[in-house]
Structures are given as structure tokens and as C-alpha cells.
Amino acid sequence: MNTRMAFVVLLATPVVALATLGCGAGEFRSPDGKFEATLVRPEPAAVHYQVKEVATGHVVLVTHGEYPTPNDVKAARFSKDSTRFAAAYHYGHLPGQPYTWIGVWRLSDGKLVREERLDGFQTTIPDSVFLEASPVKGRGTADE
User: Fold this and answer.
1) Which CATH number do you get for residue 23?
2) Rounded distance, CA 117 to CA 129, Å?
């Protein structure tokens, strides 16, 4: 193996690991391998994740931000049990109060089931967003 080939292999390995873990890479699968998330651009000024079933190609959901204004997804991941998908979006429209909005969707029906705001601009999604909790008031997104 020449030096150039070894260098390419070493660089490629962490990218594959990130995609497998679902840490916001462009395309990655759920831990059980049944769902695949892919970055999509459904409108010119926004980037979201589309999640589909691997076996059928059926689109389960397309993420969206807290507001209908254009925004790019900043991070995304599947829950460890492959039943939910979370996506994070940044908002800085309130002076001095930037925050990250995280939406959590149920994969069985594509329904938004939880929303959470975190202070500042976060680029990772904590495990805690997948725990049972109350939805944001007035949104009606609690699990049934």
C-alpha cells in the first residue's frame, strides 16, 4: 500500500463512522438499518432531512424548522431504538438570545411528537430529547 492510499483510507474512516452513528452526516441509517436519512433541498433556501424506509423506499417524513421561514438543518440523529428521528435548527432572531430548536418525529407515522429549545447554537442532539416529556405549550405534539 502506498502512502497516498493509506492517507485516503484514514481520512475516509471517520466519515463512515459519523454517518453510521447518525451524527448529522449527509446520509446515514438508523441503528437497526431499517431507515435512511438523506439531506434534501425541498425549497431553494432550505435544507432538511428526508427519512425513508430502506426496504420500500417509502418516505416517512421530511423535517422542518420551528417556523415556516427558510432554514437549514444543523444536526440530526436517530434514537438508539430506531423509533424516532430528531433534527436541530438554529434561530437568532431574538436579540441576544440565539437558540437551537430540536424537533423529534415518530418514525411509525412521521408525526412531530416533541419540540425542545436549547440555549445557544448547538451542533449535537442530546439523548435527553428522546425521553418522554411534555411538548411545547400550544403545539399539541405530545405522544398519544
Assistant:
1) 2.40.128
2) 10
